[in-house]
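Collaborator request log, item 7. Partner lab (contact: R.S.) asked for a structural prediction of Carboxyl-terminal processing protease to inform their binding assays.
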Amino acid sequence: MKKKFEVWLPLLFSLVMIIGMFIGYKLRGAQPNGGFAKSGRSTSLEEALEIIRQKYVDSVKIDTLEANAIREMMNELDPHSIYLPPIDLKEANEELSGKFEGIGVEYNQIRDTVNITYVLKDGPSEKAGLKIGDQIIRVNDSLLAGKKTTSATVRNLIRGEKGTTVNLQILRNKALLTVPVVRNNIPTPTLVASYMIDQKAGYIKLDKFGSNTYREFMEAMEQLKKQGLTELVLDLRGNGGGYMDQAIQIADEFLSGDKLVVFTQGTNSPKKEYRCKRPGVFETGQLTVLVDELSASASEILTGALQDWDRATIIGRRTFGKGLVQEIFPLSDGAALKLTVSRYYTPLGRSIQRPYNKGKKVYMDDIWERYANGQAYFADSNKVNNGKQYKTPSGRILYGGGGIMPDIFVGLDTSRISKEVNRLFFNGAVTDFVFHYYLDHQKVMEPYTSPRSFSQDFDPGKTMWPLFVTRAQKDTVNLTHIPEAEKLRVSNRMEAYLARFKWRDSGYYQILNLTDSMVLKAVDHLKTK
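Returned to partner:
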C-alpha cells in the first residue's frame, strides 16, 4: 500500500504546503495605521542589526538579515504563523480576492512549449485574438519556447498592472504572430462546479473561501432551486479554507434561528461568537458534505457547525485539523506577519486543531502518515476519539482535537493503477494527448450541448483509447494488455479532461463524479433518507 502511494506524495506535498501558506485568514487586507507603532526603545535585535551594519567586515544586506530573523521567530510559534515577504503577501491576497490583473488565459507546458488551453470569454486575450492551441514562443523579450519553463515564470511574465500591454509572440498554424494584449482584471471563481445530479439532488464544489464565495454560492443555489433542488451535495474536498466570514455566511443559509456557528478565543483575543442572522435559503433540505484530509480551516468551520447541529451528514475522510485563526499585520517594508491570534471552536465547543507541540515537521508529516499507515483507506476514529466527548442535539457523540471525523467514512480508491499508467499521468502524456485530441476534434464536440449529453453519447473507450495506446508507445508504454477495469478508469479520466476543455471545471466534475465513490455514496445516502 505504501509503495503504491509513493507516486502521489510529491503532488500531495505541494497541496499541503499551499494550505500552510494561505489558509486561515480572519480579516481581509491590512490592519489600520500600517500595523503597530514602535515604543521608541530599541530592542536587542535592532541593536544587533545596527552593530552588524556599522562593524561587519564585509558588505551585507541588512534587509535580508532582518527578514531571516523574523522568519526564524515565526518558526518558534505555531505551524501557521508565518512571515510573508511582499511578493508572497501579494500572491496570498490575490489567491482569495476573487480577481487578479492579467490577460485571461490558461496554459500548459507540453514538452518544451507553452500552449494556451483556455481563453476567457470576453477577456483581454479573446479581444486581442488569441485562441486555444496557440503556442507562446516569447513574452516581450523573454524566450519561452525550446526550454523548460516553470509555471511561476510564465505567470510573472504575463501578469502585470491593469491597463499595461504585454506582447506575445505566438505560433499558430506554423506562422509566427505578435499579439499585443492589454491586461485587465481577471475573475477567479472559487465555486468551480454547480449542477443537478438528478431531478432532486444538486452538487456544488467550493475550491476555497475567497472574498466572493458567498455571492457565488447564492447565485448557484438560486439556479439549482429553479431546477427543482431539494437535496444538496456540498463538496469541500481539497478546500484549504480562506476567509472565515464567507464560511459563516454559508452556514447561516443552512441553519435556522440564531444558532451559534463558531466562536473564537485567544490569550489576547476575548471570546467572540458568530451566530446566524437571517432565514436561510436551504434550512430544511437534505444535505451532505464531502470532506477529505485537505479540507481545512474555513472548511472545517462550516463542516463542524453543520455536524454539531445535526444539520448535515458528513461523508469522506478525517479533515486536516486546523483550528487556528490568523490575522495579517503589515510591516513597513511591504511584508507582513500572518499571526495566529485565536483558536476557533465549533458550536459544541470542540477544538479541531491537531497538536503541534512536536514541531512543524511532525505536524505536517501527519498527513503522509494517514496514507502510509492506512488511515486514508480505513476508518480511523480511534485516532481522534481519545479526548472529551460532545453530544449533539440528537444524542450523537462527537470528538475534537484532530480534525473532523465524517459520519460516513469513504476511503481512497484501492483499485490498482499500474506504474506505467501512473507515469503517463505524471509526465503529462495524458493531458497532452487529450488536449491535442480536443484541438483535432472540435467539430465532433460541437453537437454536444451539455456534459450530460456528452456523457450519454460519447464513448472514450472506443473513440479515444485506440489513439491513446498509440500515443503511449512514444513513452515506451504498452497498454494493449492492461486490465479492462484499468482501461475504463483511464478512459473516464480522459473523458473528464476533454469535458474540461469544452465546459471548464463544471464539465470536468460532472463527468468525473459519475464514477467518484464519495459522490456516489452521497447520492445513495440521500435516496435512503
